[in-house]
Design a protein that fits this description.
alpha+beta; six-stranded antiparallel sheet; 6 helices; rod-shaped; nucleus
Length: 208
């Protein structure tokens, strides 16, 4: 059932009086003539739009800088974690990663192609052996690579000892599925992410 709302229409004179009064209140300080001229040329804003709230930029959480990481010893391997057996599963994962990277290691595989791919690979988990070095005491050291920094490799030996080997002036041998490749430490003085975009010559040089 519809209900009629009683609305009393205004006469033309009443409507004109209301409009003039409204415009006078909305445009204070203007004469009736100026209001008329204004209405002919411009629109009157009857309601102001709400100001949009400015979106506050979310501050991104800042990571630790190098000094803070050193102070907190973030990258230091605790003595109780320096166990060769703990990193054997990592070595198995690394071997599968290299097989996938090299599309399978077969007798007919091109050694130069494999070496080029190894130069761009991540070596965490690889078993490295120091084949040659300017420092004779490093030669023969073998272990699983647990941490790579810009200038050094940190490896865990079978005797559960953490060894820090400088990359420069050293040649490392890596063996997987019967393939033995020699890598020159000077070429590894980059992050693995940087090596992936760098072009290398297959033949390396070392000042021994």
């Amino acid at each position: 059932m519809s209900v009629l709302v009683p609305i009393q229409s205004q006469s033309d004179k009443q409507a004109e009086m209301f409009t003039n009064g409204f415009l006078k209140n909305s445009l204070p300080g203007m004469s009736k003539k100026n209001i008329g001229d204004f209405m002919l040329r411009k629109a009157v804003v009857l309601k102001y739009a709400k100001k949009k709230k400015e979106k506050k930029k979310k501050k991104r959480a800042k990571g630790l800088n190098a000094k803070q990481r050193r102070e907190m010893k973030v990258f230091q391997l605790k003595p109780e974690h320096q166990k060769y057996e703990l990193f054997l599963p990592l070595h198995e994962l690394w071997k599968q990663y290299i097989r996938d990277l090299c599309n399978g290691l077969k007798p007919e595989s091109n050694p130069q192609t494999i070496q080029q791919r190894l130069l761009k690979a991540d070596f965490h988990g690889a078993i490295l052996t120091v084949a040659r070095s300017k420092c004779p005491s490093y030669v023969g050291t073998t272990g699983i690579l647990v941490q790579e920094m810009k200038h050094v490799f940190k490896i865990i030996t079978k005797e559960d000892r953490l060894k820090v080997i400088p990359k420069r002036n050293s040649v490392f041998a890596v063996e997987i599925d019967g393939f033995v490749s020699h890598i020159y430490g000077s070429k590894f003085e980059l992050r693995s992410s940087e090596r992936s975009a760098k072009k290398f010559k297959v033949k390396g040089t070392i000042d021994l």
